[in-house]
């Protein structure tokens, strides 16, 4: 590779295309089980409160208001009868007794009196109608007379108009403020109960979700769930999950042991074959071919071991520039291959340095082998990166022929090889599968797409390292 290919190019490569759907395939709106359960319970409880209020109004408010109207009408009739049949001296004493003992005040009604009718709501209008029906059509019911609030009832005694002032609480209705306080208290308690119930339902599911995520990452110890919970259904689910995790852990251990044994058992005779080849074969060309075959078998074994590596790893801060520079340097000085990079300085990601270098080494090797320009026979690889929210998007593209759209999804499947790679028996069909698996272990996403300007583009989404 020429020196100028190691220097960031002046002309920026094709802009980092929008990552394909697998990288940003999020649901349009996330709605957790807790909030769904809470909202459903809250709607149910609030609906019950409203239904209870309407029932109470129908069975209690109006009957009590009518009963209060009848009592007020009786008070007016008794007061009128007492005043009519008492002499002037007793009448003064009666009026004073009513004011002191019953809180009822009698006052003459003047033509200049100003008043506001008692008709603020349906119940007050109903009370006024009942009083008019009992006392006569000329009866007035007011909530304020001459700027003095109260329950004022206008009636006549022998053609003389009077006002009877009494306490509005005689109607026996709860005020609006009191109802508001009680309704708010009931609503708050209902919502608190709904949140508690939703939390109790959601808590074991969150634990199961966390355990499943740890199991997916290969952390079998952190995926253990409690088998002593009180709920029988949750306990059975936890027991089944723990047994599954134990079985998968045993399978993973057996797989690692088997692969280590295969690697050891194959590398030992290969080393002997290489030594015997170097010592016994006199034909230089034949010896070189035999050594290349042995190296290829060793490389295939390495590919299998790379693919079978454990899923769990501890991510750390990595300088993406250094990792890509190391992978480019390891590609060698092939004059027909040019690598152009456009990465912001000191781009930091979370992952494993060895794994990430292996990722870019496989991608560069794949681009060098299958991404050559059909006309010139050279391989030009462009690597660009940019930050987006809490992620780093990396795009590595070649200028080859690309692949057919129906083959894109199969390229990351183990042992699958495209048309170009089938013609060459040097590959195992594991390169891109190793890349996808390694990026997934680091918490990233990987996808392939045909570039709009030609060639195959690999899109990588890595977690951005925080300061």
- The radius of gyration computed from the alpha-carbon positions, rounded to a whole number of angstroms, is 44 Å
**Percentage of residues in helical conformation:** 40-55%
Spans with pLDDT under 50 lasting ≥5 residues? 1-14, 421-425
What is the general shape?
A: rod-shaped
Record field, number of beta strands: 12
| Secondary structure tally, helices | 12
Give the structural class: alpha+beta
Give average pLDDT, whole number: 78
What fold name goes in the CATH topology slot of the largest domain? Heat Shock Protein 90
User: From the coordinates shown, what is the CATH architecture of the largest domain?
Assistant: 2-Layer Sandwich
The CATH class designation of the largest domain is: Alpha Beta
Query: How many distinct folded domains?
Result: 3
Question: Which sheet architecture does the biggest sheet show?
Answer: 5 strands, antiparallel
What oligomeric state do these chains adopt?
A: single chain
Question: Terminal Cα separation, in Å?
Answer: 35 Å
Strand content: 15-25%
Query: CATH superfamily of the largest domain, please?
Result: Histidine kinase-like ATPase, C-terminal domain
Strand order of the largest sheet: 1-5-4-3-2
Transmembrane segments: 33-53, 179-201
GO molecular function, one term: protein histidine kinase activity
Main location: membrane
Subcellular location: Cell inner membrane
